[in-house]
Every structure is written in C-alpha cells, then in structure tokens.
Amino acid sequence: MADLYKNAFKAALQEMRLQTGIWCTLRDPLAAEMMADCGFDWMMFDTEHSPLDPISVLPMLQAIAPYPVTPIVRPGSLNAAEIKKLLDLGAQTLLIPYVQNAVEAAEAVAAVEYAPAGIRGVSGMTRATRFGKIAGYHKAARAEICLLVQVETVEAMTEIEAIAAVPGVDGIFIGPADLAASMGHVGNPNHPDVIAATLEGIRRIRAAGLPAGVLTLNPEVYDAAIEAGAVFVSKTVDMAALRKGLLG
C-alpha cells in the first residue's frame, strides 16, 4: 500500500510562510518540467484563460511530479464535475475563479469533499488514489486538499470576511485584472484605485485569519502585496517570461 501525498503548499499556508510561484498557460509538459526545476514553490496551471483543459493538465502534473514544487490547477469555473475530474487526476490544490459570496464559497467546499459533508463523487481507480494503493484515501483526502477561492469583482471584495468565514476555505486570491474591469478600469490593473483596493483586500483577508494571494506583473505592487501580508504570490506568467526573453 502507499501513503497519501502530503501537500507542502497547504502546510506552508497554514504557517503563513511565503510561497512564490509562476502562472502556467503553455500546453507543453516539457516546458512545465523545465519550469518545475526553477525554484518556484508552486506552479498554477490555468484552464480558465489558456488552451489547457482538465485532460491536458494531466501530463503537466505527471511532468512535474518528481520535483519539489506544488501544482495548483484553476478550473474554468465553479463547476463540481470539472473539479471532481481534476481531483481524481491528482490535483490537490485548486484555485476556484469568480467566487462572489459565501454561498458560492460553500459550493466550492462541497465540491472537494466526499459525502456526507460534500458532493465529490467516489472512484477508486484514479491517479489521486495511486490507482487504489492509498489505503483510506477517501476518508483522509480532504486533509491534504487545499481549496483557494478567487475574489475578482467589487461585489466579491465586499464579501471577503463572509467568504473567509466559510469552513473549508484555505485561502483567498485577489484577481487584479478582473477587479480592474469591475472597477471601471478594464485593461489597467495598475490603476492607483485598483492597487489600493488589492492591497486593502489582502490586509482584510489576513485580518480574517486566512492566507491571501495575488498575481501581478508590476514589481512594485508585488513587493507591496507581500508587505501587506500576501502569502502566495506570483510576478510572472510563462508566456510573458518567454516573450520578454525573446525580445531581450
């Protein structure tokens, strides 16, 4: 038999230890394997805004498995069937986009928990169970699943404390790009009002007792977010880093 995989990223968040990562949109396992050895704590595979989907995420998870980096997967939406598939494929950390309130946060929690607490479907021969080798997987799995929810609208920002109070939510991520659009500054996440709202949101998440996360390509905002208390942070996207490197 085999032991349940430990989620180093979740353990770090529980201790509020800074975790830095990279946003991944390339659909190439070889590129993923290369990035896995670049010193990041986590890699976020984005199926919402990239060619990636739950099936093409599988070879990405396999490619980085030998490396000391945690894969995070963002499903396309708060979709229980899609979440179930990603969990069965072996993802232990999920970032659920566009969570607007405590009700939707609770739906996300239910999607990652087996009955009677939740609605995750039960299957034994999955990559998550090491094809049936992990004894007691279904009773123990939730302890190593890290559920992150994303607030990215003006409405959602007003609900931070209520979302943070939902049992089973392990962290809250602020999405500056969509927040900017919601605030009337579409395409400009570096607008002073958006930056101020993002930093204030991070402080509120921390005050509510949860780790806060953010992605920003602005080095000054990145540093300010960490100073404000952000725990899981990224300042680069694989495609942006590739383009920057090519242009010199």
From TrEMBL:
Domain of life: Bacteria
UniProt name for this protein: 4-hydroxy-2-oxo-heptane-1,7-dioate aldolase
Any one Gene Ontology cellular component term annotated for this protein: cytoplasm
InterPro entries: Aldolase/citrate-lyase_domain (IPR005000), HpcH-HpaI_aldolase (IPR050251), Pyrv/PenolPyrv_kinase-like_dom (IPR015813), Pyrv_kinase-like_dom_sf (IPR040442)
The HpcH/HpaI aldolase/citrate lyase domain, residue ranges: 19-240
Annotated signal peptide: none
An annotated Gene Ontology molecular function: aldehyde-lyase activity
Family indicated by similarity: Belongs to the HpcH/HpaI aldolase family.
Short name of any one Pfam family annotated for the protein: HpcH_HpaI
Record keywords, A-Z: Lyase, Metal-binding
Species of provenance: Donghicola mangrovi
